[in-house]
Amino acid sequence: MDITRLRLLLEFAERGSLTAVARETHQTVSGVSQQLRRLEEEAGLPLTEKVGRGLALTDAGRALAATARELSVAIARADAEWDAFRNTPTGTVSLATFPTGGQMFLPELLRRVDDVEGLALVCSDRDPPSDGFVPLTADFDIVLAHAMQLPKSNAETIVVPVMVEPLVIALPSTHRLADRDYLVPKDLVGERWFGNPWGYPFEAWLDQNLGAPESPMNVIQRFADTHIIEALVAAGLGIAGLPQYTAASSYPDRIVLKRLQGAESTRSIFIYMRRDRAERLAVRNVVGLIRDVARTIRES
Description:
Layout (H helix, E strand, L loop, with lengths): L2 H13 L2 H8 L3 H15 L4 E4 L2 E4 L1 H28 L4 E7 L1 H16 L4 E7 L16 E6 L9 E16 L9 E2 L8 E4 L5 H10 L7 E5 L3 H9 L5 E4 L11 E6 L5 E9 H4 L2 H19 L1
Parallel strand pairs: 3-4, 3-5, 7-11, 8-9
Antiparallel strand pairs: 1-2, 5-12, 6-10, 6-11, 6-12
């Protein structure tokens, strides 16, 4: 079977539509459809079937897509071994990061990548809810993600731990609790909160520890962008739960950060990668640089 057609089948398995595959591979929809029909002829079994107005993989299609994934990984591993033999971890690596991850990692990471001859890193920011990071692996070599719990690798996706970051309570510097060494949940009853949309990691932490039925949290606004939340806290309009390493960096004299004793929590920062992309030597080098930058952040 033709490896190019097998890769098209794998793209269809991951993206779910001929239009998305055509867009990613810079082909026409009819061209992709024709290639898949030829693969179907080679396989001798139906690989797709109509479902509503679209197409879906048959059992045979899913099985062959899994084989295509294994082949893709094997080819990427062979390329990586050859690159290692030549000692040339060159090429362009694409990376997607959530906003505060980019704020933490990108300045130093890009400096370090610039020091590696022939290696280039193209970055983009994304801010999905927790379950929205894995789909990004179809479009990016490396997806820097965060969640309250570190997920596990599976047959399609590798998870690489990067660091654990404490979560803290951000208060205006003029707040009545600003001089405390730490806070406890009962200190925060009745406060005005700026929260995240549901599905984002911090919201679950705060609701679990502070959202008692008899005194629910008074969340007056919700924002995905922590920079907006910081600006509102700095203005004295409320308080928030934020990640420690980036919180209040723009407002060092107007926001104070406090540990929440009895409800301490952290978020895991990690990398998602498709298994074939993870084999590339250039990708592995960038992953190593990300983990080096994480060590620098923790030690600073």
